[in-house]
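Hi, here's the filled form for the chain we discussed.

Project: internal
Contact: R.S.
Residues: 139
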Amino acid sequence: MPEIKSNAASAQAIASTALRAQQARMRIIAENIANANSTSRTAGGDPYRRQAAVFRPDKMEAGTGVKLARVEPDRTAFKTEYSPGHPSADAKGYVKLPNVDTLIEAMDMRNAQRAYEANLNVIETSRAMESRTLDLLKR
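And the returned structure, exactly as it came back:
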């Protein structure tokens, strides 16, 4: 019966990599939301640029997990707003605003939460199956 335990341990190890990855993704999304209205500190300068998590497969003894490979800036264009009196306005009176859409960030956060919960359920189910197997072996 050791194979059952190793399968449970493998599932738990793989799911834990996904938990860490989704946790990192949620931190990045929270940073994006926190900076959604940030402007440049200098006139005509660039504001906060949205960040995106990039994952990669992570080979491990138990199988293949997932890992945060890097955080990349989103290269979509900044929004602009005409506000000549703003300290960040350029010579024409336009202020660059972050390329962060809070609705998209909220949806991304919900997706990350669901993925986190799903992987947490994998760990909990795996532990319950392992415990149930041990109970059956005791009989």
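Let me know if anything looks off before we file it.
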